[in-house]
């Protein structure tokens, strides 16, 4: 189903149903973000335990992130 079709289908819902849909979608997105973060934390712990991390200042970290 295409995004536009989903929006058109949502337009057919009552305002209460649309509010419920928004709430359900928001909760799902929050849960997906939580799962992603948990995976990143697990990976970081693994890297730390394997000795693949080194101390760095905030300035060094920012320098590596900015183009």
Structural features, described:
This protein is mainly alpha-helical. It has one domain (3-65). The chain has helices at residues 3-11, 15-49, 58-65. It is elongated.
List the helices and strands and how they pair.
Layout: H1 3-11, H2 15-49, H3 58-65
What are the low-pLDDT stretches, counting only 5+ consecutive residues below 50? none
Average pLDDT taken over every residue: 96
Distance between the termini: 37 Å
Shape: elongated
What is the number of helices?
A: 3
Strand content: under 5%
The percentage helix is over 70%
Which structural category do the helix and sheet elements fall into?
mainly alpha
Summarize the structure.
78% of the residues lie in helices and 0% in strands. The chain has helices at residues 3-11, 15-49, 58-65.
